[in-house]
Amino acid sequence: MLGTANALAVTPTVQGQSGYINMPNARVEADGTVSVGYAYDRPYGSLWVTATPLPFLQVTGRYVSISGIAGFTDVKGEYGSEYGRYKDKVFDGKLQLLEESEWLPALSVGATDLFGTELFKGRYVVASKVFGKARNIEASLGYGKRRPDGVFGGVRWAPLGASGWALVAEYDANDYTKDHRAAETAAGERRKGPSVGLEYRWGWLGAQVARHRDHFSANAYISIPFSEREFIPKLYEPAYFQAKNAPARVSLEEWRSSGHPAALVQALVRQDYKNVRVELDGATLRLSLTNNRISDMGRAVGRASRTALAFAPTGVRAIHVTYTKLEQPIATYEFFDIQRLSDYLTGLVERENFLQTMLVRYSNPADKVGEEGGLLAAIRDDGAALGVQLNHDGNFVQVSSEDREANRFKLVPKFSLFFNDPSGALRYETAVAANYDKRLGEGLYFNSAFKLNLFENVSGVTQPSNSVLPHVRTDIAEYKRGGRFKLQRALVNKYMTLDEHWYARASGGLYEEMFRGAGGQVLYLPQDRRWAADLTVDALQQRDVKGWLGKRDYKTVTALGALHYQLPYDVTVTGRAGRFLAKDEGVRLEFKRRFRSGVEIGAWFTRTNGRDITSPGTPADPYNDKGIFLSIPLNITLPSDSQAVAGFAISPWTRDVGQMVASPGDLYELFEDPRRDLNAYDGLGNFAERRDEQQRDVITRPVQRLPDAWPRFRWRVEQSVSAAPTLPQWAKGSLLAGGAVLASAALDKPVDRFVRPREDNRVLDAWGKAGKAMPVVLAGAAGAAVAFGDNRMQNMGIISLQSIAGAAGVSMVSKRVIGRARPNEELGASSRAGKRSDASFPSNHAAVAFAAVTPFAQEYDAPWLYGLAAVGSLGRVADRQHWVSDVVAGGVVGYAIGSWLWQAQRDDSRFAITPGSKQIAVTWSGTY
User: Fold this and answer.
1) Alpha-carbon distance 623 to 644, whole Å?
2) Which of 641, 743, 808, 885 is 20 to 30 A removed from 35 (C-alpha atoms)?
């Protein structure tokens, strides 16, 4: 607990990582905790943020200033003199290898200043243990290199009679005299030695004061547990619709000609539903709608179903509700028993009983409900009036208006910060932003944004960029100087559902402050899978700095393919590859963790062929774009539900490499949350809002941890051992394999004589390159089968990867034993290799290739896969890396191991671990 100050309370050091004063311990804060603080320990001032994105991983970002030395120059009036003290960005990490048990201590390894200038670079290992009957004493011992330097340790004692207080002591092993320009700062006067401190924690808040040899240090912070579902109860959440407020029910025939359909739509609109469509199809009442306020899709559909049930005519046998985003159907809820639906909503039947009479599924284009022009025209819209709202959607004040079709106007204040420019360490921008969105037709929207700068000093950045790439971002100061009032965005977006699981967007207009153009995106969302894929292509032209309709000469086409994959702990990994904004080509990896509160913490790293030499990049070591971000759903901090999100990102703001244009409307982000709700357990979420269900997993969303892999591994080992070939089978197989190798040896010299004079042949060269890459490609295909395949293909992928490992091991050992020379060594087919670890016999590439394909070839009766492996393996002969007999021997090894493991493990129906999109299912069946 964060509010309990005892030895178990994890407390940050002045660097932000958990520990004592300067020295770390082996603990990490509770999963999902984010701490923000400021510390001063002469000569270092640190503004730090620490997060625990995984239960065993702690990461820290620090913005460190050093007193006593100027960042650029201390000569008044010269460029950089306004920057102040020297400053550096630092990234640290700690990985807990072992949790504390009754007898064993916790054990962690850590690293400081992993990237960039590496001024505070260091590595350490540390163990920590809690002692005492009351478990109020903690001790740690560790060893580090560079920072800390040598043996270090620490102790914390939390007196039982002084709640919230603790005493700490440590041996500080940092060698401060080796710090950056230590002779010019107070760091040069510091030495290794003991330090003591006093700390206090109250709820989320904490502070520490410590005494060192000749100075004091201080650290103050706030720790926020984002693993909690919410921080403020929903005191002002509107109640769901009451059936007593509905008109008297009428028959099916009367309902169509009465005012009930319009009344139903009006009742839904008053509950913040948008794009409401209603249709009576025989005895089925069909609705499609969305809700821009309620964050849980199941709860939104539950309230809509409750309202529809109150207005439904007598004789209705089923209700279908399709949830949409921008009029694109995502999920359809079908209720086949109206009485059972009513009983469940009123608490008369249990959830399990209700689930037997309904279906939750992915939507298809046929689930769209058509527009009824007369019906919609007859509905009075109470939400279109312009009004001033205080503390709404996370804004202190806003002027807004929104109608039933999500046509909206919003006027809100904006504030941005920019750090680390040489002409001034802190830059800011205060503005008023106006957004106007208009529905033009089905799935067709006009989106615009204006901005009026009130106060800013970003335009004071005067240093020209030395980037050798097209200036797609580094001229940002020119854009800020271009004008106070600007048209930031004005574009038309068309959203489409192409087929089941296929969505598309076409866009054209002013994308953002710096670019305009036209483009689109196609998204594939497979059913009940952990992955999704999309392709985005945009033809762009740079806008001028004035912010209206002018342009610059720079044009480009960006094209990025993306693969999104969901892992346990609600981690999403996204890989993007293609062409970026500055015409550089490469890849971008994004990682993000979503906690139970909906808060997301993530980071990205981009590597392209763009040579960004802006500091700290150099021609020899160019800069690669990177950053971290935090996304906070405001409903956890508000007394009523909301879909509003506050986003923060820390990344270089004057870089051109690895940049992307602001998306007009990313489809994956649009559908990500509804899809998560759909795939979570039964897909209903907090559908009925019943008090007796609030502790169900479908509502509390416990963390889905990694499954225990040991039972499955043990089963596979047992199966493989029990299915091992008998001695007669080994003998027969060895004779056949030996015969094949000996027969192929007759081709060694003739084939090499043919290849040797043609080494520069283009066809043979390409064949050789293909042969070299083949094992990597096949191993990747096996990994893809595990990641994206069904249960059968996942099992084959695992067997294939096991076969690859086994074949590679046998091949490498055989190489050292036999030590045959390669053809390109020109020593002859029977000579010894100069380097036994790089010997020729057998071919490791061939062994891996045949081991990879054999399980699939036998399981799916696909002998052509052997041909693929053979053609790739013979590329090694064409490249004169192997003799023919080497390739045959390697193929025999791979085939034998692949066949053995396939026979042993192909029937994996007894045991299965299925990390599906809705849950991680562990199944074991057997006979006793």
Assistant:
1) 34
2) 641
Three-state SS sequence of 589-635: EEEEEECCCCCEEEEEEEEECCCECCCCCCCCCCECCEEEEEEEEHH
What does 192-245 look like in DSSP terms, one character per residue? SEEEEEEEEEETTEEEEEEE-SS-EEEEEEEEEETTSS-SS--TTPPPPPPGGG
Per the CB < 8 A criterion, the answer to whether 232 and 637 are in contact is yes
- Tell me the residue type at 783: G
Cα–Cα distance measured from residue 199 to residue 347, given in angstroms and rounded to the nearest whole number: 50
Instruction: Confirm if 918 and 680 have CB atoms less than 8 A apart.
Output: yes
Task: Tell which residue, 59, 55, 52, 20, has the closest CA to residue 39.
Answer: 20
CA–CA distance, 445 with 435 (Å, rounded to integer): 13
What predicted TM-score, i.e. pTM, was given to this entire model?
A: 0.80
For residue 57, what are the β-bridge partners? 54, 95
Q: What tokens were used for 88?
A: 């550096």
pLDDT for 908 equals 54
Over range 70-97, report the average pLDDT: 80
745 membership: H or E segment, kind and range: helix 727-745
Which three-class secondary structure state does DSSP give residue 69?
strand
Write down the pLDDT at residue 143: 97
CA torsion sign for 366, 371, 372, 375 is positive
Structure tokens at 812: 């490498």
Closest alpha carbon to 341 in 688, 856, 813: 688
Query: Would you state the pLDDT for residue 925?
Result: 40
Determine contact, residues 564/546, Cβ cutoff 8 Å.
no
Q: How many helices (H) and strands (E) does the chain have?
A: 17, 34
Beta strands across the sheet bearing 328-335:
273-281, 284-291, 318-325, 328-335, 358-362
Residue 32 in tokens: 């999902």
Half-sphere exposure of 859 (CA within 13 A, CB side): 25
pLDDT confidence of residue 372: 63
What pLDDT shows up at residue 7? 44
Distance, CA of 879 to CA of 901 (rounded, Å): 31
216-225 and 284-291 as β-strands: parallel, antiparallel, unpaired?
A: unpaired
Q: Quick count: other Cβ atoms within 10 Å of Cβ 587? A: 16
Helices (H), 378-521: 476-481
Q: Which residue has the tokens 């359909």?
A: 261
**Sign of the four-CA dihedral 608, 610, 614, 618:** positive
Give the 3-state secondary structure of residue 488: strand
Q: Which residues contact 320 (CB under 8 A, 6 or more apart)?
A: 284, 285, 286, 287, 332, 333, 334, 335, 367
Q: How many residues does the chain have?
A: 928
Sequence letter at residue 5 = A
- Helix 884-905 to helix 864-878 angle (10° resolution) is 150
With beta carbons less than 8 A apart as the criterion, state whether 760 and 745 touch: no
